[in-house]
Amino acid sequence: MAKADEAVTSFKRGFSCSQAVLSCYSEELGLDRDVANRVACGFGGGIARMGNICGAVAGAIMVIGMKRGTTRPDDTAARERTYALVQQFIRDYTTKNGSIACPDLLGHDMADPVQFKEALEKKVAARICPGLVEDAVTVLERILNE
């Protein structure tokens, strides 16, 4: 199964967008899937439904850090490569979706109880987020393989 399909399936099973993205890379990152899901749990819904960065984007940034990030404070080359990849990811994702902010992507501010309730009633996340998760993994795969 392709990673994007795996991530979408994970999201549709009930995991958050951030969990879906990070966990589909867990095996190749040497990370237990349960640990990946715990690490990414708080990033869903614009970081704990606070209307910030899309959880799928946050999950992708975690993957970039796990694959290319530095383990030493003096490894400025790895830090710069990681930052460049994250910047490229954000540019490409924004070009595709118009934003990386959860409220912009969903058209609802999940931090606002009234808008959150409306989003639930309209099944906004179920309709929109699978595509955002797929886009995050597709963009991530492309930039990691360039």
From TrEMBL:
It holds the Pfam family C_GCAxxG_C_C. InterPro entries: CGCAxxGCC_motif (IPR010181). It comes from the Archaea. This is C_GCAxxG_C_C family protein.
